[in-house]
Amino acid sequence: MKSWLSRNGSITTITSILHSKKGAAFSSVFNSFFSAFENLYPTPTEEDISRLAKDIKMKVIIFKPVVTEGGWYFIQLSNK
Questions:
Q1: Which of 25, 44, 57, 74 is the most buried (most CB within 10 A)?
Q2: How far, in Å, are 44, 53, 64, 74 from residue 30 at the CA level?
Q3: In sequence order, which residues have a C-beta less than 8 Å from that of residue 39 and are 6 or more positions away?
Q4: pTM of the model
Q5: Which of 36, 20, 8 is nearest to 74 (CA)?
Q6: Residues near 11 by Cβ (< 8 Å), separated by ≥ 6?
Q7: Helix (H) or strand (E) holding 29
């Protein structure tokens, strides 16, 4: 997806975060469900998001909870 972006582009997603400070119990159950299937990816941790951003040479500019009970976060990565 990064190759589709302009020089100042960004990628935004909403996902549950495993072991988050908010909604840890829900994100653990959600991760168990995802991990049970070969065609689904496990729920990322905050460290996974940071590592991904670094690997693709982007910066995490927004990382904030949107549904605290479920551990869902709004995340924006930027080329800036």
A1: 44
A2: 11, 23, 19, 17
A3: none
A4: 0.77
A5: 20
A6: 1, 2, 5, 58, 76, 77, 78
A7: helix 24-35
